[in-house]
Specification:
Number of domains: 1
Distance between the termini: 24 Å
Number of strands: 0
Strand content: under 5%
Number of helices: 4
Largest sheet: none
Helix content: 55-70%
Structural class: mainly alpha
Shape: elongated
């Protein structure tokens, strides 16, 4: 029975992701491709939209890693 549920979930169409999740994915993809975000406030805003608490003094690299971890949990 569990196997059937997994197959059904695998082959079912996935719901469209929210704009917040898409922004986070785009950010991580850009960083992975060698880009650097120029606006730390935007990175913090994306993190907060995902439900993360972010200090304005936190290093941007740390915040991006937390966003990456949050995306793996979604």
């Amino acid at each position: 029975m569990q196997f059937v549920k997994q197959l059904t979930r695998f082959f079912s169409p996935r719901p469209a992701c929210s704009a917040e999740i898409q922004q986070a994915r785009d950010l991580v993809k850009a960083v992975d491709n060698g880009g650097l975000p120029l606006n730390p406030a935007k990175v913090n805003h994306i993190a907060r939209q995902l439900g993360l608490e972010v200090s304005s003094k936190a290093p941007m690299a740390h915040t991006i890693e937390r966003i990456r971890e949050a995306l793996t949990r979604l």
